[in-house]
Amino acid sequence: MAIDYARARRLLARRDPILRDLMRQYGPCGLAESQHEDAFVALVHAIISQQLSSRAAATIAGRFDALFDGRPAPRQVEQVPDTVLRQAGLSGQKIAYLRDLCRRIGDRSLPLASLDDMPDEGVIAALTQVKGIGRWTAEMFLMFRLHRPDVLPVGDLGIVNAVRRAYRLRATPTPRRLTQLGEAWRPYRSVACWYLWASLATAPLKE
C-alpha cells in the first residue's frame, strides 16, 4: 500500500511541533522519490555498501552490475568466480555474504518474492538469516525498497544524532527513549525519520 504522504505530514505536524518545523524547512518527503529497486539488487547493493563511503560503494556496485549488463540475478552471480568479483572490488567477506544470499534464494529459505506480503518483523526475520544482513540493513530495505511507512531504526547513528540535536537533549537518546518518542509518530515513523535524516545535512551536531 502506498504511503499517503500528505496525510502523514498532517498527522506528524499536529502531534510533534519539532517535526512540523522540519517539514516546513525541507518540504516534501524524499521517501516518495526512492525507487522500488529489484529486491535482489537492493540487497546486493546493501551488502556492497557496508563500511564504505557512498562514492566507493557506488563505484563497486557499478562494476558489479556491469558484469551482468546491469541486471544481476542470483543464478548468474553464483556462476561468477570469486576472482572476478574481487577484481570488481568486493572483499572476500562480502563475496561470502553474496554467496549465502544466492544460496538462500535458490533453496527458498529466503522467500524473496513473498517479502512484499510479509509484516515488517517477518521481513526482518527472513532477511537477517542471511550472513552479512543485520537488523539495520533489513530496516533500510523496508523503508527504501518496500516503502513501509512505520519503521523506526533505533540503532541508526544518524537518527540518534538528529533526535539529540532537534529535541535539544543533553544525553544521547537510548533505543528505549527513541521508541518512546516515536510513539507519537505512528503509523508514519519512516516519514519522521526521513525528516530527521534531512536535518543532519545542513547543520552539524553540537557536542
What does this structure look like?
57% of the residues lie in helices and 0% in strands. The protein folds into two domains: 5-34 and 151-199, Endonuclease Iii, domain 2 (Orthogonal Bundle), CATH 1.10.1670; 39-144, Endonuclease III, domain 1, CATH 1.10.340.30. The protein has 207 residues and is an all-alpha fold. The protein has helices at residues 5-15, 17-26, 39-49, 54-66, 74-79, 82-87, 92-106, 120-127, 135-144, 157-166, 175-182, 189-199. The chain is elongated. It is built from twelve helices and no strands. 30% of the residues are buried. Helix 2 (17-26) packs across helix 12 (189-199), helix 8 (120-127) crosses helix 9 (135-144) and helix 10 packs across helix 12.
